[in-house]
Design a protein that fits this description.
The chain is mainly beta. It has one helix and eleven strands, in the order αβββββββββββ. It holds the Pfam family PCuAC.
């Protein structure tokens, strides 16, 4: 890995780590979002998968990266895999994981995607697995929506909107019941 790539990865991980709250939530209702017609009450179904709670965080001006978060439940009897994600908000959209290795937070791309085991739920959340918007074309502003297309091995493609919550949000602005998990 080149020094430039290492520095970019470190800067990206640092930005996400600094933005990750320590049980913080401002308690305000940031409003409902206007999703695609198939997204009733914040849920989207594609194949055997149900996707809920899609959100992103507002970014600072000139921030090079942003994150995308959501929950995927596989109600089927076979595993599926989130293979890739695409969004026009940046130059590239990747699937990432942040994990502690000793006392160092490290971030890495999950090039093979994420397995969604049959009958289980996977949560992409701040400080864990997440979508990474690389090379943002503009800041993500609280209240905006970021369209993202997810590609699954079995279920196929689905496009949904990630609502931009505040920069310290740990769950969708409209989903106060799932705070603090």
């Amino acid at each position: 890995m080149s020094l430039r790539t290492s520095l970019f990865a470190f800067a990206s991980a640092s930005l996400l780590a600094l933005a990750t709250p320590i049980l913080a939530h401002d308690g305000h209702d940031h409003g409902q979002h206007d999703d695609h017609a198939s997204q009733n009450s914040g849920e989207v179904t594609v194949g055997d998968l149900t996707i809920s709670g899609p959100f992103t965080r507002a970014t600072l001006p000139n921030a090079p990266v942003g994150g995308g978060f959501l929950t995927i439940t596989n109600g089927g009897s076979t595993d599926d895999r989130l293979v890739s994600a695409q969004s026009a908000i940046g130059k590239d959209t990747q699937i990432h994981e942040m994990a502690m290795e000793g006392d160092v937070m490290k971030m890495r791309q999950l090039a093979g995607g994420i397995v969604i085991p049959a009958g289980e739920t996977i949560t992409l959340k701040p400080g864990g697995m997440h979508l990474m918007f690389m090379g943002l074309h503009a800041p993500i502003v609280e209240g905006d929506t970021v369209p993202v297309t997810l590609s699954f091995e079995q279920a196929g493609d689905v496009t949904l909107d990630l609502v931009a919550a505040g920069s310290a949000a740990d769950a969708p602005a409209h989903d106060h019941g799932s705070m603090g998990h």
